[in-house]
Amino acid sequence: MRIAFFVNSIEGETPTYTTTGLALAALSRGHDICYLTPGDFVLRADDSLSVRGRTLPSKRYKKAESLHAALQGEEAAIETMDVGDIDVVFLRNDPSLDADTRPWAAHVGAMFGRLAAARGVVVVNDPDGLSLAQNKLYFQEFPPAVRPETLISKSIDEIRGFLEAHPKGAIMKPLQGSGGKNVFKIGSPDETNLNQIFEAVSGEGYLIAQNYLPAATEGDIRLFLMNGRPLERDGKYAAIRRVPAKGEVRSNIHASGTAVAVEITPEILAIAETVRPKLVEDGMFLVGLDIVGDKILEINVFTPGGLNIMHDLYEVDFAETVIEALENKVALRDAYAGAIANRMLATL
């Protein structure tokens, strides 16, 4: 089969990205791959949908670095193909990276992914589901039992009131964003730099304030779910603990956090089970949960990362399990001749 990975840009990809690991696993299993970016779709007058995909030779690369070098180099070729020649479109872009500089590109994947699904392509995560999750407001649709207490506002008076009600402090961050950008811990409403922080974060739109969880000093747990359930292979869970750097509130790897192995407890599995029904309903095939204590801080549905780190920590190729799941979806699509909706197929 042919898998198309939709990303923000080719030059922005790295050997350590989860997308690279997924592409490597797909090639190792004998599949064709290509990469798509926001400007690569063409909807013609006859209603046919084509893409200009960056393709790689169908060979087995031993290392992610080799695959990445080929993608960026002369081995890659641009091929125009009908979308029907693609079996799976894997939407792996981060809309927040394009929101400021290329707002037209932020949601192109979901827009054209919907058209591809209507033409029989398996699209994951489901584009209609992703349209519901364009910012962190989506998180508020999950049960309160697994969420920190949260305020969403553009009013500094509301923020101050929330801080007064939470003497242990709060985390403040933009409603739209990723990678730990503009995330601050506020100790009290009397902090002298609160106005400056508010101005910096509110410039990106609405703010989220969440009650601070003391367990966050130990970092958070990134747990992958696939088809609504914890991703496992060889008796290992696809999970890491991300430990923040000294003096840092963010545990994101991009913010100098470090990753260590973690034991997944029944309590963590119970949290995952609580969010499973909605993720399945929304067609969220591959998801990353960020968990602190008994709460989820974020649900990453666009481009969750970390599978490469988990591979190194546990010597388990979780990416191969993900590709196996896609093979099963294509087989079901063919067996049912399009009778199963993409949103359902995405999590079967």
Write up this protein.
With 348 residues, the chain is an alpha+beta fold. The chain folds into three domains: 2-130 and 322-340, Rossmann fold; 136-142 and 216-317, ATP-grasp fold, B domain (D-amino Acid Aminotransferase, Chain A, domain 1, 2-Layer Sandwich), CATH 3.30.470; 149-212, Dna Ligase, domain 1. It has eleven helices and 19 strands. Helix 1 (18-28) packs across helix 10 (318-336).
CATH topology of the largest domain: Rossmann fold
**Element string (H = helix, E = strand):** EHEEEHEEHHEHEHEEHEEEEEEEHEEHHH
Tally of strands: 19
C-alpha Rg, in Å? 20 Å
- Taken from the alpha-carbon principal axes, the silhouette is globular
Structural class by secondary-structure content: alpha+beta
CATH architecture of the largest domain: 3-Layer(aba) Sandwich
- Unreliable parts: none
- The total of helices stands at 11
Give the biggest beta sheet: 7 strands, mixed
Q: What is the strand content?
A: 15-25%
CATH class of the largest domain: Alpha Beta
Helix content: 25-40%
Number of domains: 3
Keywords: ATP-binding, Glutathione biosynthesis, Ligase, Magnesium, Manganese, Metal-binding, Nucleotide-binding
Family: Belongs to the prokaryotic GSH synthase family.
Catalytic activity: gamma-L-glutamyl-L-cysteine + glycine + ATP = glutathione + ADP + phosphate + H(+)
EC number: 6.3.2.3
